[in-house]
Design goal:
Blueprint lengths: L2 H15 L13 H38 L3 H65 L6 H71 L22 H14 L15 E6 L2 H4 L5 E2 H9 L4 H8 L4 E4 L5 E6 L20 E6 H6 L10 H18 L9 E2 L17 H6 L3 E5 L2 E2 L4 E2 L7 E2 L2 H4 L17 E2 L7 H8 L9 E3 L5 H9 L11 H11 L2 E8 L5 E8 L4 E5 H15 L13 E5 L1
Parallel strand pairs: 2-9, 4-6
Antiparallel strand pairs: 1-12, 1-16, 3-7, 4-5, 7-8, 10-11, 13-14, 14-15
Helix pairs in contact: 1-3, 1-4, 2-3, 3-4, 5-16, 7-10, 8-10
C-alpha cells in the first residue's frame, strides 16, 4: 500500500473515532470562546503573581525581624509570624499553581480543537485529492507527479497534527507537574502548622512561667535585656563594644560542629553570658541555694561582697527616675527613646521604685529575696547619691530594671522588711552588682575580669567584688533554661569552636583594624603584635573561679604580652561573625573558656 494511502487510512480511523464535536464545530466551544477564557485567566494569574510577590516581601521582612529579635519570647513570636507568612506564601503558591493548571487546561482544550479541525481538514483534503485523482486518472496527467503532490499535501497536514499532539502532551505533562507541586506544598503546610502548634505551646509555657513567678531572675524577666548587666559600670569604650557583641551573639550560631583535625587548636568552654549575666557580685541563683541551706540575707551578702558591712542608713524617701514613656523598662533613654521622643524625669517614692524591681520569684526563699532587695537598694542609693534629683536612675538594664511604671509593685513586703538596710565598705556605699547565675566555672568572677581595659586591668577600684566559689550551695539557671527552652541555644551550656591555626589568631587580632567598634583599642593591639611578632603560644591568666581575666600571647620575637580576656572574647566573636573563617558562627560564649590542641 503506498505511504500516502497508509497515512490517510490512519487519519480516517482517527476522524471516525474522535467525537464529532471536537472537529465539526457542532455543540463545541469555538476557538474565540476559548481564547476569551484564556485572556481572562491570564489576568487572574497576573493578580495572583502580584499577591505572591507581596507575600514574599512580607516573608523577607519577617525573616529579618526574626534574626534581629532579642529575648526568647520575641524570638518565638517572630518565628511564629514567619511560619504564618510561610503558610500564606505556600497557599498563594498553590493558588498560582492551580490558576496555571487551569490556564494550561484551556490551552490544551484550544490545541485539541485545533487538532480536530486539522484532522477534519486533512480528511477532506484526502477525499478531494482522491476525486481529483479519479478525474485525472484517464487524462494525460502524470500519475507519479500526482501521487507526489498528494503525499506532500497530506504530509504537511500530518506535520501540523503531530505538532499539535506534541503540544497537548507537553501541556498534560506541565499540568501533572503542577498537581505534584501542589501536593508537595500541601504537605509542607501541614508540617508548618504542626511546627507552629509546638512553638505556640512553648510560647504559652514561657508566658505562663513569667506571669506566675513575678520575674524569674535579673534580666530573664526583661525580654529585651541582653547582658543583664549594670552597663553604667562599664567604661564608655567597653559599654559600646558590649552592646555590639550582645547584638552579634543574637544573630546566629551555636558553636562549632566540624571535625577538628590533628594539630589544630580549638576553644571550648561552658556557660552563656547572654543568659547568665556578667557574673560579678551576688549570684541570684547562688543566693537562692544559700537561703535553701538556711543562710540569712546578711550572711549571703557578706559572702558575695568581701569585707562589706550590712547595716542601716538614712535612705531618702524619694528618688528621681528617668525613662521613656512608651516603654519604660525596655527603651533605654541613654540611646534615645523610640520615635525620637524625649525621656521623662520624675520624683517617686523610693519604696515604690524598689518594689517594682521584681528580681526574684515570690516562691523563692524569703532570705534570698531580702538579700536581693538590700543589694538593689544599695545600688540605687549609690547611683542617685541617695535620691538626689540631679542624679536620676533609669528603669532598664543600664541601671536596674524596674517595672513600677507598668503597675508592678508586688515586692513591697520585702522592701518594708529591709527598710533602710544597705551595704557599705570602708564607710562608703558599695557598687552592689549582681547577676542571674555566676557559676560558669566555680562561682562569681573578679570585678576586673568583667570590667577591664584592653590590657585586662580594672577600670575601677572595687575590692569587695572578688571571685567567690559558691559551688557548695549554688543553684543554677541552667535548670530553668533546660526546662523552658530545650535545645539551642538555651539548654546547651557546653560549646567549642572549630579547628584553627596560630596564624588564624593573628588574623583575628588584625580584625580590630577593619571594624570601627574596636578603633579605640586598635593602636594597643597593633603595638602588642609589633612587639611579639606572629603568635606562637596562647595561655590564660584566670581568677579564682576559672573565668579568663587575661590572655597571654607569646610570639616569634620571644616577647609575651597580655590583653584582657573579655576583649579577646569580644574581638573573636566579631571576627567570626564578619568573616566566618570556618563557615560557621563558632563564638566564644562565656569567659570560662580553654584552648586545646588536638
Amino acid at each position: 500500500m503506498p505511504k500516502i494511502i497508509r497515512i490517510m487510512v490512519v487519519l480516517l480511523v482517527v476522524v471516525i473515532l474522535i467525537p464529532p464535536n471536537l472537529y465539526s464545530g457542532v455543540d463545541a466551544r469555538s476557538i474565540d470562546d476559548i481564547q476569551d477564557d484564556i485572556d481572562q485567566k491570564n489576568g487572574e494569574l497576573d493578580q495572583v503573581e502580584a499577591n505572591l510577590a507581596s507575600a514574599q516581601s512580607k516573608l523577607n521582612q519577617l525573616v529579618a525581624s526574626l534574626q534581629s529579635a532579642e529575648g526568647e519570647i520575641p524570638k518565638l513570636k517572630a518565628e511564629i509570624e514567619q511560619i504564618d507568612a510561610n503558610i500564606e506564601w505556600n497557599s498563594l503558591q498553590m493558588e498560582f499553581l492551580n490558576e496555571s493548571k487551569n490556564l494550561k487546561d484551556l490551552e490544551r482544550e484550544e490545541r485539541e480543537v485545533r487538532q480536530g479541525d486539522a484532522m477534519h481538514n486533512a480528511y477532506k483534503s484526502w477525499r478531494v485529492n482522491n476525486r481529483i485523482s479519479a478525474h485525472l486518472s484517464g487524462s494525460s496527467a502524470n500519475p507519479v507527479k500526482l501521487r507526489k503532490y498528494q503525499s506532500q499535501v497530506l504530509a504537511k497536514e500530518q506535520e501540523g497534527i503531530w505538532d499539535l499532539e506534541d503540544q497537548i502532551l507537553g501541556l498534560l505533562a506541565e499540568i501533572s507537574d503542577f498537581e505534584q507541586e501542589t501536593e508537595d506544598l500541601k504537605e509542607k503546610n501541614k508540617g508548618l502548622k504542626t511546627q507552629k502548634e509546638q512553638l505556640e505551646a512553648q510560647l504559652a509555657m514561657l508566658q505562663n512561667s513569667y506571669s506566675s513567678t513575678s520575674g524569674v531572675v535579673a534580666g530573664l524577666r526583661n525580654e529585651a535585656g541582653i547582658l543583664q548587666a549594670s552597663l553604667e559600670q562599664l567604661s564608655e569604650e567597653q559599654r559600646v563594644v558590649a552592646e555590639y557583641e550582645a547584638w552579634l551573639l543574637g544573630q546566629a550560631g551555636n558553636g562549632g560542629t566540624q571535625e577538628v583535625n590533628a594539630g589544630e587548636f580549638y576553644l571550648t568552654g561552658r556557660g552563656r553570658d547572654v543568659a547568665q549575666g556578667h557574673g560579678v557580685g551576688m549570684s541570684q541563683y547562688g543566693a537562692k541555694g544559700a537561703a535553701d541551706q538556711g543562710w540569712t540575707a546578711e550572711q549571703i551578702l557578706q559572702f558575695y561582697y568581701t569585707g562589706a558591712t550590712v547595716g542601716t542608713y538614712a535612705v531618702s524617701d524619694q528618688i528621681s527616675v528617668k525613662y521613656c514613656a512608651n516603654n519604660p523598662a525596655l527603651d533605654a533613654y541613654q540611646n534615645g527613646c523610640d520615635g525620637g521622643a524625649a525621656p521623662v524625669t520624675e520624683r517617686v517614692s523610693f519604696d515604690t521604685y524598689l518594689s517594682g524591681l521584681g528580681e526574684m520569684p515570690e516562691s523563692w526563699p524569703i532570705e534570698a529575696r531580702r538579700a536581693q532587695m538590700i543589694a538593689a537598694r544599695t545600688y540605687a542609693v549609690r547611683y542617685t547619691a541617695n535620691g538626689n534629683a540631679s542624679y536620676p536612675i533609669c528603669l532598664t538594664t543600664y541601671c536596674q530594671v524596674s517595672y513600677f511604671k507598668d503597675g508592678d509593685t508586688r515586692e513591697m513586703d520585702i522592701v518594708q522588711s529591709t527598710d533602710n538596710i544597705v551595704i557599705t565598705y570602708g564607710g562608703q556605699m558599695i557598687e552592689a552588682l549582681y547577676s542571674a547565675d555566676n557559676n560558669q566555672g566555680l562561682g562569681s568572677a573578679d570585678h576586673d575580669t568583667r570590667f577591664q581595659n584592653i590590657y585586662g586591668q580594672a577600670t575601677g577600684s572595687r575590692p569587695y567584688l572578688v571571685a567567690k566559689n559558691d559551688n557548695q550551695f549554688a543553684d543554677s539557671s541552667r535548670m530553668y533554661w533546660e526546662y523552658y527552652c530545650p535545645g539551642a541555644p538555651c539548654g546547651l551550656w557546653g560549646w567549642r569552636t572549630n579547628g584553627y591555626s596560630m596564624a588564624d589568631f593573628d588574623q583575628m587580632l588584625d580584625h580590630v583594624n577593619h571594624n570601627s567598634y574596636y578603633s579605640h583599642v586598635a593602636p594597643a593591639i597593633n603595638q602588642i603584635r609589633a612587639e611579639i611578632g606572629n603568635i606562637q603560644a596562647i595561655t590564660f591568666v584566670r581568677d579564682g573561679t576559672e573565668h579568663v581575666k587575661k590572655v597571654r600571647l607569646t610570639g616569634t620575637t620571644g616577647a609575651t604580652r597580655e590583653i584582657g580576656g573579655w576583649w579577646f572574647k569580644s574581638i573573636w566573636n566579631s571576627w567570626v561573625y564578619h568573616n566566618q573563617p570556618t563557615g560557621q558562627y563558632d563564638y566564644i560564649y562565656s569567659l570560662t573558656f580553654f584552648l586545646l590542641q588536638k
